[in-house]
Amino acid sequence: MNVIGLETRPSGLARLAWRSWNALQLVFTIAWTACCICLAQAVLAIGGGNRRAPLKMASRLWAPGLLIGAGAKLQVEGLERVDFSKPHVFVANHQSMIDVCALFRALPVPIRFVIKQELERVPFIGWYARNMGMIFIKRGHAREAAERLHGIVALVRGGDSLCAFPEGTRSRDGSIRPFKGGAFQVALQAGVPVVPIAIDGSGEVLPLSGFRVRPGTITVRIGDPIPTTGLRIGDRHALAQRAHDAVAAMHACARM
């Protein structure tokens, strides 16, 4: 009896320690995000509505702070494959909410995300996302989503880059789900390349359910840009499949 008790006690203490640490991390995440958003809004107002500076703050201040707070090491591969002086549509698999931090930090240009409609109602985050020109998509409303995506075509043509998670939701088992065609339609209409990105390890750092953070390495692998020259809107599903296959291949190599 005593031996069993001694064997199980450290496990219970370890769980309690992790829960306490995660609670502190959650408080830090909320406070850090709120402070960074307020600072970004101030910079936006001072800059006369220019969004580039506050978007850069997301990659140089907010995202690094949350990654450090989570104990996550970020590894980026393939930056040399992309000409970041030109706009692109970046598409990535989605394992965790921390994917947004990883992409903000990994990509050396300001990016606008396609995000789910529900986040528009979240305090601070919805406010920030609207002011930064993020695109809100309502799940299950394909036609409405397509109409909203049309609104960013002019921005992409003007030099802004878009980042989307075309699976539509986070993967529960790490597998790559089929890609929806909305973001690819934007790329085709704007005439810009699609860049496939494979994210690995984020689901282990911050799993889908709850706030159970564990230290680890998040790897962002950037694939070869897929040109859209000569393609038509009707080719968006074939383009989505090609990007999906590229992401899946990079993800599979990471697991070998």
The CATH class assignment is Alpha Beta
The CATH architecture category equals 3-Layer(aba) Sandwich
Derived from helix and strand composition plus strand pairing, the structural class reads: alpha/beta
How many domains would you count in the coordinates?
1
Average pLDDT works out at 87
Q: Please give the order of strands in the largest beta sheet.
A: 1-7-6-2-5-3-4
Give a quick account of the main beta sheet: strands, pairing sense, barrel closure: 7 strands, mixed
**CATH homology superfamily name:** Glycerol-3-phosphate (1)-acyltransferase
Q: Which parts are unreliable, with pLDDT below 50 for 5 consecutive residues or more?
A: 1-9
- Total beta strands: 7
List the main descriptive attributes of the protein structure presented here:
7 strands, alpha/beta, Glycerol-3-phosphate (1)-acyltransferase, 9 helices, 256 residues, disordered N terminus, 7-stranded mixed beta sheet
What does this structure look like?
- α5 (142-150) runs parallel beside α7 (182-190).
- α4 (125-131) links the parallel β3 (111-116) and β4 (135-137).
- It is globular, with a radius of gyration of 19 Å.
- The protein is built from nine helices and seven strands, in the order ααββαβαβααβαβαβα.
- It has a single domain, classed as Glycerol-3-phosphate (1)-acyltransferase.
- The chain has 256 residues and is of the alpha/beta class.
